[in-house]
Amino acid sequence: MRRFTLPVLLAAAFLPAAPASARPAEYNGGALPTSFDPGRLGAATPPPADTVDAPVAGVATLDHGVARAPAGAPQAVKEAIDAANRIRHKPYVWGGGHGSFQASGYDCSGSVSYVLHAAGLLDSPRVSGAFESWGTKGRGDWISVYANGGHAYLVIAGLRFDTSGSGQSGPRWRDESRSARGYRVRHARGL
After folding, report:
1. What pLDDT, in 10s, does the model give residues 145-170?
2. Is 162 within 8 Å of 107 (Cβ atoms)?
3. Is 0.90 surpassed by the pTM of this model?
């Protein structure tokens, strides 16, 4: 779980967000951060290519495996987080979530499909490789899909939702870092 000091949170709340033209279009590779630097919010220079910063828009909280949307999050983000919370204890099942959004278990792309569908961003389930061309190129302010031919995961309001990581397999909120090397990063326009 990310921990921020009160001064950092207050500074982040009152700093203006960087204009879309100042934010990089895409981050290639790297690990998710373990800390948030509010000094970067207005920076025109993108972070190093091997990192993925927390979204400018807002950071969700994670409490005992349940994510909570930040205040002011768009409705689609709240719905995506609620959907991920609903399936966060489901087992990993190869092909799960592809025949129907409702399944007894989910694989990586099935869980990404379920969450995006619940947020109104996807009409039918997709396999991992198909997410490489979904939406718009680059990292979103609220929701980003990381995909390649063999795996897909989401970062929603700064929290990673993934079927792989430490602990149990299956769709879970993961607070440990993950390399994004070899993934294409996509987002829904406006999010």
Report:
1. 999 999 999 999 999 999 998 888 89
2. no
3. no
